[in-house]
Specification:
Elements: E1 4-6, E2 9-11, H1 13-35, H2 39-58, H3 61-81, H4 83-91, H5 109-128, E3 133-137, H6 144-147, E4 151-156, H7 159-166, E5 176-180, E6 183-189, H8 205-216, E7 220-224, E8 231-235, E9 238-240, H9 244-256
Parallel strand pairs: 3-5
Antiparallel strand pairs: 1-2, 3-7, 4-6, 5-6, 7-8, 8-9
Helix pairs in contact: 1-2, 2-3, 5-7, 5-9
Length: 257
């Protein structure tokens, strides 16, 4: 059934939905290319596709063949360059991320309070002893893809364990420690760095990594600066400092959600 016309072209509500969904899809794809700093390349590819279509309509077979081969080679190069980001993107499609009880035990309020106290004690000891640290607490988003970049562990969440891992002489002190529930599951992990340009100059790699992982997942990240001993938290791509009393409440809520 015809809804309206643009000139001599009849349009229906299905055509409107088609254009709307295509626009949203194009926006999402271009925004993702922008986040990985390849917006210019993606626009060049889009231009080549339009050019290829025009050449095909004009019947220029030889030039169309050359442009098609160029597109294939650029696609292969992009696939290689974007392999880590594509892997994280595909791994991040979680249809059942809210059903966290399928992946781990649900903690009681008493257990959550105990874990919060152990983590806060660890932060205080690390700061007092001048040890830098980056601790990532897994939320509903699975962090296995990031845990695989480090060394697999199965250690209880305890202040002494964090002290042992982040001791300067420890072979595992570089990188991030990932915590799942009441277990430390990996150490020496590599995290994605935030690409924001508005960050303070005193933010080092730990702070950028803390922001990067919380920009991509719902994890809660704790940072201890090796230079200043300042303790910060990162969540939803933002870093802030809060008193230990508030931090304990935040950790308990995080574990019980």
């Amino acid at each position: 059934m015809e809804t309206f016309r643009i000139g001599l072209i009849p349009l229906t509500w299905r055509d409107g939905l088609d254009v709307l969904f295509l626009t949203l899809l194009l926006y999402v794809v271009l925004r993702w290319f922008y986040r990985v700093n390849l917006l210019g390349v993606s626009l060049a590819l889009l231009g080549l596709l339009v050019l290829l279509k025009g050449l095909s309509l004009m019947g220029l077979v030889a030039v169309s063949f050359l442009v098609r081969q160029l597109l294939i080679w650029i696609g292969v190069i992009l696939a290689v360059a974007l392999a880590p980001d594509l892997r994280r993107l595909l791994y991040g499609v979680r249809f059942f991320s809210g059903l966290r009880f399928l992946r781990r035990d649900v903690l009681t309020e008493q257990q959550a309070e105990h874990l919060a106290e152990e983590i806060i004690e660890a932060l205080q000891l690390l700061s007092k002893n001048g040890l830098g640290a980056l601790i990532v607490l897994e939320g509903t988003d699975d962090l296995s893809v990031f845990a695989q970049t480090g060394d697999s562990l199965q250690m209880p969440v305890a202040a002494r364990m964090f002290m042992m891992l982040f001791e300067k002489k420890s072979p595992l002190h570089d990188g991030a420690v990932i915590v799942r529930g009441d277990k430390i599951i990996a150490a020496r992990c590599t995290l994605p760095l935030s690409e924001r340009l508005d960050l303070p100059q005193n933010y080092g790699q730990r702070h950028r990594a803390a922001m990067g992982i919380t920009e991509q997942t719902d994890a809660l990240t704790l940072i201890v600066s090796e230079e200043t001993g300042i303790i910060s938290i990162a969540q939803r791509g933002e870093i802030r400092r809060i008193p230990f009393v508030e931090l304990k409440k935040l950790l308990i809520r995080f574990y019980l959600r």
